[in-house]
Amino acid sequence: MGAEALIRAARPEDHAAIAGLLRHAFDGDAEAALVTALRPAAIELVAERDGELQGHIILSPLEAPFRALGLAPLAVEPVWQGQGIGAALVREAIARAAGWDAIVVLGDPAYFTRFGFSVDLAAGFACAYAGPYLMVLPLREIPATGRILYPQAFSAL
Ligand SMILES: CC(C)(COP(=O)(O)OP(=O)(O)OC[C@H]1O[C@@H](n2cnc3c(N)ncnc32)[C@H](O)[C@@H]1OP(=O)(O)O)[C@@H](O)C(=O)NCCC(=O)NCCS
């Protein structure tokens, strides 16, 4: 038994297990459908241990006045939550986004600010999800204002 999950790029043979994991973590089909829509343009990683998928993360392009990736969704299989797998997925996703200007996330600041995401840095942007849960993690210098547009697929959530 490996002590830690391996974080690696998702492969086509993972897709069915990813859909199952998303249904368990979110209690519905909407996130699995979203991931299927986002997948072609995305950075998609899984956490695997002993052949089991324990977690999943996907980053996909957004329209913004900088080269932006949106982080969503992030999910860890319920029985494996609270053991650092989500954090390992977020950290590896940030490392693999090095060619981009910033990552945007809609989530709980109590969780995402630990990785450097900032509510204040997102406050200058017009966005359908603007407010206390929208955060930006700059990877390079980015403008402070403008519009962030999520793809249509997100409106089904
Ligand atoms: C959110 C989630 C991905 C975190 O993954 P994880 O592997 O359980 O988290 P980690 O082990 O990396 O971190 C645990 C920490 O996150 C906190 N945490 C876990 N889920 C949280 C949530 N939804 N909101 C805020 N904090 C959360 C825990 O309290 C713990 O805090 P601590 O380090 O201060 O004790 C996971 O709980 C999950 O899949 N939840 C259901 C789906 C979801 O809500 N996804 C996020 C939005 S896309």
What does this structure look like?
The strands form 2 sheets. This protein has a 6-stranded mixed sheet with strand order 1-2-3-4-5-7. A two-stranded parallel ribbon has the order 6-8. With 157 residues, it is of the alpha/beta class. The N and C termini lie far apart (37 Å). Helix 1 crosses helix 2. The mean pLDDT is 96. The longest helix has 12 residues, at 15-26. The chain is 26% helix and 29% strand. It has 5 helices and 8 strands, in the order βααβββαβααβββ. It is globular. The protein has helices at 15-26, 30-38, 85-96, 109-112, 119-122; strands at residues 6-9, 43-49, 52-62, 68-76, 102-106, 125-126, 134-138, 146-147. The protein has one domain: Aminopeptidase.
Low-confidence stretches: none
Shape: globular
Instruction: Determine Rg (CA atoms, Å).
Output: 15 Å
Q: At the first level of CATH, what is the class?
A: Alpha Beta
Q: Class by helix and strand content?
A: alpha/beta
Q: Write down the CATH topology.
A: Aminopeptidase
CATH superfamily: Gcn5-related N-acetyltransferase (GNAT)
Number of strands: 8
- Quickly count the domains: 1
Ligand inventory: coenzyme A
- Under the CATH scheme, which architecture would be assigned? 3-Layer(aba) Sandwich
Please tell me the overall pLDDT. Answer: 96
Percent of sequence in beta strands: 25-35%
Topology:
Blueprint: E1 6-9, H1 15-26, H2 30-38, E2 43-49, E3 52-62, E4 68-76, H3 85-96, E5 102-106, H4 109-112, H5 119-122, E6 125-126, E7 134-138, E8 146-147
Parallel strand pairs: 4-5, 6-8
Antiparallel strand pairs: 1-2, 2-3, 3-4, 5-7
Helix pairs in contact: 1-2
The structure holds coenzyme A.
Coenzyme A (COA) binds at residues 25-26, 72-76, 81-87, 107-108, 110-111.
